[in-house]
Amino acid sequence: MKRFTRTRSKIMLTAALAAQLFVIGALVPNTVFAEEAAPASSQRLQPEAKEYRQYLHDQYGITVSSTLTKGEFINDIARILALEPEALNHITDLTSDSPYYRAANALYESGVITEQAVRAEEPLTKLGAVFLSLKAANLKELAYTYPENKIRSALLKIQAVREDYGLQAAQELAAAVDNGLLPAELHSSFRPAERAAGDFAVILLGQIASFHGAYKHDLGYIKDDMIFNRVYQAYRTADLIQTPELGSTFDTALRNNLITGYNLKDSRFNANFDPRLSVTYGHDDITHALQLIGLLRSEGLNAKVQLEPKTSAYIYMKEWGEPVQTDTFKVVQIESGNYIAYAKEYDISFEFDTADAKDRFGAVISQYAKKNADDQTGLIHSSWWQPLYYSLTEQSDYKVIANNKAEDGPYYAQSFSLAGKSAEIAAGLKKIDAGLEVESYEFWVDEPFYNYLVGGFK
To answer: Which UniProt keywords apply (predicted)?
Structure first.
């Protein structure tokens, strides 16, 4: 919410605090550098297998076994790509009761599988996994441009002999090597006929997600020299988010005093970070975000960083004065004479390398970004009385509140509330729109914001 940034400070202080009552946030997903290691701005390391493994489990429910079959790998690819078949008559060696039947047909239609007999129960070889992964990563047209000299150069990296492969197979393998689908860490251990399981398969599946933009989204690390530029540019190019159907429903909830605020966000900007290591922080001032990154950096903390644009909507009272509209702040007058205000804001998400580093975040905010007096000094720019940050996993010094969320394609609207109010809000939203699917769940928020929700000023 906009806080303490507009003219008529006393009036706007009241407006801003009222707007906080139901602040909305995005709840929903590279090797993390150690805190003491400051990476060069251009250096981005390949995610480790354990990071991919955790992500695949959290986002897709995928667990890669040590006895992986070709059919299981096909299922995993289809799940990552969210593929469903249009027809079910492509695959000749599977019946409709096979657990691989739908996925195999879907991958055949998409060109990932090119033969109608898939031999799903056979062990998956490393070479077979690469061929499937290259097509799933949408690299096959690139691969088929490879001339002999580029093929031989790429295959040398994995100590492979060109003459051992037909042209198409050699092209696919070379393109997988050149483009990091088969990353350098797997080059020395690549044996084409060996079973693809464990870390090898996990990394390929993680790379497929990455090539489709379905892995974690981040702008870099706190210690990247260019992180300030990237974060500022991400904020500068974001606009107010508009979703007519969701907006209409939640605006009605505002008019009916069911909620006093909500957020609009676009899931395509979601960080997709590991919830055990992540904190999301909400604000409206980009200078504050840049100084926050610098503050964490100065405290020796490092983390992945993602800026998630959001638009906050709340009731702007007529007694606060005539609102001034800009490109980042719009209002619509309602029957009462008050307005519904729409303000450009952001969430900034951090994924730390350890749970201990995540635990330190709150203490840093409390000391340097939590306002306790009107004339307080020693805080970063535009610090709030009630800073808002939250975790999707339990934190010992955080408080439980609830979120009520509804989606429309990639967009979603949601409202924070006390946990005891969640059922009432969800029911009220469904009364406004009977077809609306409302997801309600609990999460953990910092104590100052929780205190405000229960009526405290500080």
So the answer is: Signal
| Chosen domain end from 178, 211, 244 | 211
Residues 312-354 have pLDDT tens digits of 999 999 999 999 999 999 999 999 999 999 999 999 999 999 9
Average pLDDT of adjacent 10-residue blocks, the chain of 458 residues: 35 36 35 35 66 96 94 98 94 96 97 96 96 97 97 96 96 97 95 94 97 96 97 97 95 95 97 98 98 97 98 96 96 96 98 97 98 96 97 97 97 97 97 97 97 78
The answer to whether residue 257 sits within a structural domain is yes
Closest CA to 210 of 392, 46, 426: 46
Angle between helices 167-178 and 126-136 (to 10 degrees): 70
- Is residue 26 within 8 A of residue 347, CB to CB? The reply is yes
58 lies in the same domain as 180: yes
Domain boundary among 173, 192, 211: 211
CB atoms within 10 A of CB 34: 12
In this structure, is residue 338 part of a structural domain?
A: yes
Q: Which two tokens stand for residue 83?
A: 């593929």
Report helix angle 49-60 to 198-211, nearest 10. 70
CA distance 122 to 128: 11
Please tell me the pTM assigned to this model: 0.85
CA distance 47 to 207: 9
Which amino acid type is present at position 24? I
Print the domain residue range for 54. 49-211
227/374 same-domain check: yes
